[in-house]
Amino acid sequence: MGKDAGAVVDADLRLKALDNLFVVDASIMPSLTAGPIHAAVLVIAETFARTMNIES
Question: Any idea where the domains of the chain sit in the sequence?
């Protein structure tokens, strides 16, 4: 995620390979923790919702 060359989405969660496609789930996380990831996914979703709200 972000500016890393291996990232598949940019900082706004837009898929780099396709236009107007966003990825808002745990698959964008560079590495998973050993524990539950629910809270991290909620933060990703909240960040995306705020971004979309600003752009609208």
Answer: 1-56
